[in-house]
Design goal:
CATH topology of the domain at 312-402 and 416-450 in chain A: Beta-lactamase
Oligomer: heterodimer
CATH architecture of the domain at 312-402 and 416-450 in chain A: 3-Layer(aba) Sandwich
Distance between the termini of chain B: 14 Å
Number of helices of chain B: 20
CATH class of the domain at 312-402 and 416-450 in chain A: Alpha Beta
Strand content of chain A: 15-25%
Number of helices of chain A: 22
Helix content of chain A: 25-40%
Radius of gyration of chain B: 27 Å
Radius of gyration of chain A: 34 Å
Largest sheet of chain A: 6 strands, mixed
Chain lengths: 613, 486
């Protein structure tokens, strides 16, 4: 062995080892700080900054008379911090009794809570104030209650109109959460007003920045105060709505009433409906929702806007108006009706009445043959080269009246109904069709479907003698001078005002002299109306009625649609009449009629048959 | 700059002092003070100069260290050799005082002495005594590293503080003395001793990571392969080897399969083949008189024995030590156990290139890094001064260690050389373990970072270590006549 003093080889080896180790440290530090640096910066921030979201109270909704439609209610969540809870177990029997929660569920939520030993987790949600007081009295260490607001519906009306709150779904978060406002477990309005005015009602969430120290102490600074949601005033008349729902109980269909001079919706009752309190966020919401969802009569459906049906004879009014405007119909024109209309192969039945008859009486008694003639004249107008062009002209008029299009109302889920283009018939009949081919449309059957809202809007147009405001359900938003301009601009139709007077004369006669809807007659109110009886392949005819009152300076326009209601006058007319009476006179003078409507038994076996399937 | 001291025989205070080392030392201690200040500064504190702040205490220790450094340069430079054993004995006695009522237990280790308001960790100072004693022993005339009896004496000296450290439940400090291997290698320790030691350490670590079966197969493959390599030049022997291997293993296989009526799997086949090949290799090595093969076989047996032993040793460790090792090896995902290292890595990693700025590190400020001013002080530098700060620290440390090694190499006497290498190895070990553990590449041990970490005893200990080396280097009679600059 060499003398170690001169052993330069070993000296070099050790030197290289030292250098390599430090270079290695340098490289590893570079890897940590330069390559992985950003992820560590995030981790460091997550370490000491927590953003805590503070929730604003959601806006409340009032009816037009200042009555609460949707109200906030305080309830309490029972929270537990497992670390602070008594080690030797707690009296779960007593807890179960106070909170009215099963032992099994309590045990499960305890097990969940124990996963986060130091942080608070909910044990029982949505406790009543009473239970909260009892818990306060017990003063169990580690347990405390936190308040939270839930919705409450004092009137129990309009389940499918007002909507409800739900937790944001994963699907929504991944697809529609464009502005990133919602986080998981946030609440969002579902259906109805809650959904339509979500932006106004929700307010703006606040944010608190919490700096956390390693020893679990922290300091808070408010970055943004929460902005409370805006209160809304609805145009709904709660009393009227409740009455309409009461009358519609047991029937399938809907009622829409509009104030013609503003377009405000007074009533929008869809039947069957449900108590909106059933869907308040809470323990029972899930079960109730599933039950409602699978109920064969579909109570979650707002039929007033989502269910287009044949308008039936109410549609004759529109054909009359178009005929008058086009000059192919004059009020004094008389057509004969021999229990119906026959032309070529086409036959259209009618009920028994005097014949021949003029426009007035044709409207009042709802003569099919008369309006077949009118419709045929419109399409076969000499002005146009062919009935097809006549059809196009007719279609333009119909669309002006809001049929076949979405009205643009603020109620979500609106359907446009059916109004065919000429192309449809061209394709279907290979260009060989004429007025007779599409004759059924003249009496509101066949390729014409409309929602109850469209029918009510039609009634409002007639009441206004030629124009309408887009129907809307919210008339005032807190902090805003007026609602959206689109609800304040009138839409004019190209039918002249004098023609409306002609039609209204017929409608008035139908109610007050010798027509189909004399039940709707109210003393001194000059109700005008038109029944409809729409045939359908499923069961009894649909019963429908549009009406407005009083005749001069109308205050209410209404459309009632009762599916399988037999005749227009059987179900729809009394319902509409009672609602008008209540709205205009604040009294019910015909209790027997109320009883009659309530006890009316209609055959809905078709729905039950579907269920069996 | 050192010329004056060499030419004149007058010993002046700074005569012959290696100024590079002094500058490195002062720079490092200043960096250390900045880091300790940053780690222990409290904004809300009313009294900046309050003695309850760590940085003020550190400042006091710093002053004391500088005074002691001056004092070491003042006293006669030959006395270190003369009184080496006495200093060693005294320091060890002080260490033993921790077992008296004066001793204090901090973090489970009874390694501290409480003196009034101060606490001392005497083991840091004992490193000076042990280094001096080992240097004195090895500088004795006729001492040879290759001589087992001499080596035994040296190891005995080292074993004393290691044993005490284990008794104190402060294994980390004891392990520091393992770093003397570095110095022994410089002094001419046989390669054949270094290689198996490194091999067995590697095996120890691997035995936690791999299953014994896999490890056994790996060993068998390595050894069979290297045995084959050693016989490569003798092709006849190779053929014999293969034939024998086949023959003996088949016989073994048949014997076990038929006679013992056992199900035979891959493990068994491999084991029989290996046993057979070892038999062949032993016979061959005996006949060809190949000592390296003997050695190889011995190593194989030792490592096979080592396999279960490592497990046994592991189970005799304390629970927290087991956890630290398991954590390091990535065998636990318990957040509490991973917490220290995770937070420390987050602190260093989030520093980025230039760091978050002095007093602006969130991990340090908000108290996420444990022991932020002592063992995990490197996090402060990594977080607040970033990659640049870390590089500066690494370079200064590396330069200091290299400088100490260089100082050792230019000594005329073995005493000075061994001592300088002892200091270099201790510093190197401390840096490796401390920086490595903050970055999560070494299991966590409670070892401070020299000159940087808060702690009076470690600062004093390292100051004494370095300045005694400077003093020895500066004594004119012990300088090598020719100097090379580095």
């Amino acid at each position: 062995m060499n003398n170690p003093r001169n052993d330069t080889f070993r000296h070099q080896v050790l030197r290289i080892i030292v250098c390599l180790v430090f270079i290695g440290f340098g490289l590893f530090a570079g890897y940590l700080q330069l390559i992985e640096g950003n992820s560590y910066i995030d981790k460091a921030e997550n370490n000491f900054i927590r953003y805590i979201i503070t929730y604003p109270p959601r806006g409340e909704v009032f009816d037009r008379n200042g009555e609460y439609l949707i109200q906030n209610k305080i309830c309490y969540d029972l929270m537990v911090v497992p670390r602070e809870a008594p080690r030797n177990g707690i009296d779960t029997v007593r807890l179960s009794k106070i909170t009215n929660e099963s032992m099994k569920r309590l045990k499960r939520s305890f097990a969940d809570a124990r996963r986060n030993w130091r942080t608070a987790s909910p044990v029982v949600k949505y406790l009543s104030a009473e239970a909260k007081l009892k818990m306060d009295e017990w003063n169990l260490p580690g347990f405390y209650t936190v308040p939270r607001t839930v919705r409450q519906y004092p009137r129990n009306i309009g389940g499918n109109l007002l909507g409800s709150l739900s937790e944001v779904s994963q699907n929504f978060l991944s697809k529609h959460n464009h502005d990133g406002y919602y986080n998981i477990r946030d609440y969002i309005g579902e259906q109805g007003i809650e959904s339509a005015y979500e932006k106004e009602l929700r307010g703006e969430k606040g944010r608190i920045r919490r700096n956390i120290y390693a020893n679990h102490t922290s300091t808070d600074e408010v970055e943004r105060e929460p902005v409370p949601g805006k209160n809304l005033v609805s145009s709904i008349d709660a009393r009227l709505q409740a009455f309409a729902e009461e009358l519609m109980n047991g029937k399938i269909g809907s009622v829409v009433a509009i104030e013609p001079e503003t377009g405000e919706i007074l009533v929008m009752a869809s039947s069957p409906t449900f108590d909106p309190n059933e869907l308040v966020i809470g323990r029972e919401r899930g079960n109730n929702y599933m039950r409602l969802l699978y109920e064969p009569r579909r109570p979650l459906f707002n039929r007033a806007v989502t269910s287009p049906q044949p308008p039936g004879s109410t549609f004759k009014l529109l054909n009359g108006l178009i005929g008058l405007q086009e000059g192919v119909l004059k009020p004094h024109y008389r057509y004969s009706c021999n229990k119906g209309y026959k032309a070529g192969n086409v036959k259209m039945g009618c009920h028994e009445h005097r014949s021949p008859l003029d426009l007035d009486y044709a409207i009042a008694t709802s003569c099919n043959a008369y309006f077949c003639n009118v419709y045929r004249n419109i399409l076969e107008n000499k002005k146009y080269e062919s009935p097809k062009q006549g059809y196009e002209a007719w279609r333009n008029y119909v669309e002006e009246f809001g049929f076949g299009t979405k009205l643009g109302t603020d109620i979500p889920g609106e359907r446009r109904g059916t109004l065919m283009h000429r192309d449809y018939y061209d394709k279907l009949y290979r260009r060989s069709w004429n007025a007779l081919t599409v004759l059924s449309v003249s009496i509101g059957q066949g390729e014409i479907l409309s929602t109850t809202l469209q029918l009510a809007n039609f009634a409002a147009i007639i009441a206004n003698r030629g124009y309408y405001y887009t129907p809307h359900i919210i008339k005032q938003i807190e902090g805003q001078d007026s609602i959206d301009i689109k609800y304040r601009t009138p839409h004019y139709t190209s039918v002249e005002k004098r023609h409306f007077e002609t039609i209204i004369k017929g409608m008035w006669r139908g109610v007050n002299v010798d027509g189909t809807c004399q039940t709707a007659k109210l003393k001194g109110l000059d109700v005008c109306g038109k029944t409809g009886t729409a045939q359908n392949p499923l069961g009894d005819d649909h019963s429908t009625f549009i009406s407005f009152a009083p005749r001069n300076n109308p205050k209410i326009a209404i459309a009632v649609y009762v599916e399988h209601g037999i005749w227009g006058s059987t179900a729809a007319v009394p319902i509409a009449s009672l609602i008008e009476e209540l709205y205009l006179t604040d009294t019910i003078t015909r209790p027997w009629l109320v009883d009659y409507v309530k006890n009316l038994e209609l055959d809905y076996s078709i729905y039950d048959r579907r269920r069996k399937k | 700059m050192t010329g004056a001291g060499r030419n004149s025989n007058n010993i002046t205070l700074f005569g012959g002092v290696d100024w590079w080392t002094v500058i490195l030392y002062i720079t490092l201690t200043i960096i250390g003070f900045v880091a300790v200040f940053s780690a222990s500064y409290v904004e809300e504190s009313e009294n900046f100069w309050s003695f309850s702040h760590e940085y003020i205490k550190h400042l006091v220790w710093l002053g004391l260290s500088y005074a002691i450094a001056l004092f070491i340069l003042l006293i006669d430079r030959s006395s270190w050799h003369k009184y080496a054993y006495i200093i060693c004995a005294v320091t060890l006695l002080i260490v033993l005082m921790t077992f008296t009522p004066l001793g204090k237990t901090v973090n489970g280790a009874r390694a501290w002495l409480g003196l009034g308001g101060f606490t001392l960790q005497p083991m840091e100072i004992a490193k000076v005594g042990i280094s001096l004693a080992v240097a004195r022993l090895m500088s004795k005339y006729g001492f040879s590293v290759d001589h087992p009896a001499d080596m035994f004496k040296a190891l005995c000296i080292i074993a004393v503080p290691m044993g005490i450290a284990v008794l104190q439940n402060d294994t980390g400090s004891g392990l520091v003395f393992c770093s003397f291997l570095f110095m022994f290698y410089r002094e001419g320790l046989n390669h054949w001793i270094c290689v198996p030691i490194i091999f067995l350490v590697a095996l120890l670590i691997l035995s936690f990571l791999l299953t014994p079966g896999v490890l056994l197969i790996a060993l068998i493959v390595i050894f069979t392969f290297s045995a084959g390599m050693l016989m490569r030049n003798r092709w006849k022997a190779c053929i014999k080897y293969v034939v024998w291997l086949f023959f003996v293993s088949t016989i073994l296989f048949l014997v076990f399969a038929v006679a013992l009526n056992k199900d035979v799997n891959y493990y068994d086949c491999l084991l029989y083949t290996t046993v057979a090949s070892i038999v062949v290799v032993i016979v061959y090595a005996y006949r060809a008189n190949l000592r390296t093969l003997y050695f190889l076989i011995l190593l194989f047996f030792v490592s096979v024995i080592c396999l279960p032993t490592s497990d046994m040793v592991f189970h005799h460790l304390k629970a927290h030590q087991q956890n630290r090792i398991r954590t390091f090896l990535g065998q636990v995902d318990d957040k509490d156990l991973l917490y220290n290292v995770n937070q420390s890595k987050i602190a260093i990693g989030s520093g980025g290139f230039a760091g978050k700025g002095f007093l602006k590190g969130s991990q340090i400020r908000y108290g996420f890094v444990p022991e932020k001013h002592t063992d995990f002080i490197f996090c402060t530098i990594g977080e607040e001064f970033g990659f640049l700060g870390a590089l500066v620290l690494f370079s200064l440390m590396a330069l200091l260690i290299l400088r100490l090694m260089r100082m050792g190499d230019r000594q005329l006497e073995t005493f000075g050389r061994v001592y300088c290498y002892c200091v270099a190895s201790i510093l190197f070990f401390h840096c490796c373990i401390n920086i490595g553990m903050t970055m999560g590449v070494v299991p966590v041990m409670g070892i401070p970072l020299p000159f940087i970490s808060y702690g009076g005893s470690s600062l004093l200990g390292f100051t004494m270590l370095v300045f005694i080396a400077i003093a020895l280097d500066a004594s004119p009679t012990k300088r090598q006549s020719t100097l090379r600059r580095w």
